[in-house]
């Protein structure tokens, strides 16, 4: 194992054990390196790596702190990486992941979705039908799926789904859908999902979500 990797694992263990908690300041570099049996250079590289993935927060002139470790912050680094992968193959692979996760989230949402959520989802379907640009389609689609996943009540899942299918990915998807003339069919699937949610039928909601994501995936494959 590389020395830097070992240093990363040591710091991670301190966080996982609770020795270092969110918001805690790390000991002085020299003290921490001596305590962990590491060189200051390897510890410095570990801190730099952990700050890039937002586990640590390096504050110039004030020291290094453990971040809040909230899902949104930690998954932000993943979002940056995914935005770099914009090929058609990468978009299809992200859709495959959505096809696994989103139906489960939709089924869970059917058990807890509120009437105000149903009304908001209906309005988003109407707005999508009337959208005049790809940018509007993307925005309404983001709001639609975010609302459903949020209703499932799992913050980590919500952040992960948002990361996997953020604006950059959805622009590519909706551009393909609009060029292929499939907007009406996509909106119809959205409405079917809403109807299943309103009926509080988890398995029907799961099925329609699967049909929806798999259909978009297949449509893009056919276009390619």
TrEMBL record:
<dbReference type="InterPro" id="IPR011711">
    <property type="entry name" value="GntR_C"/>
</dbReference>
<dbReference type="Pfam" id="PF00392">
    <property type="entry name" value="GntR"/>
</dbReference>
<keyword id="KW-0805">Transcription regulation</keyword>
<dbReference type="InterPro" id="IPR008920">
    <property type="entry name" value="TF_FadR/GntR_C"/>
</dbReference>
<dbReference type="InterPro" id="IPR036390">
    <property type="entry name" value="WH_DNA-bd_sf"/>
</dbReference>
<protein>
    <submittedName>
        <fullName>GntR family transcriptional regulator, transcriptional repressor for pyruvate dehydrogenase complex</fullName>
    </submittedName>
</protein>
<feature type="domain" description="HTH gntR-type">
    <location>
        <begin position="1"/>
        <end position="69"/>
    </location>
</feature>
<keyword id="KW-0670">Pyruvate</keyword>
<keyword id="KW-0804">Transcription</keyword>
<dbReference type="InterPro" id="IPR000524">
    <property type="entry name" value="Tscrpt_reg_HTH_GntR"/>
</dbReference>
<dbReference type="Pfam" id="PF07729">
    <property type="entry name" value="FCD"/>
</dbReference>
<keyword id="KW-0238">DNA-binding</keyword>
<dbReference type="InterPro" id="IPR036388">
    <property type="entry name" value="WH-like_DNA-bd_sf"/>
</dbReference>
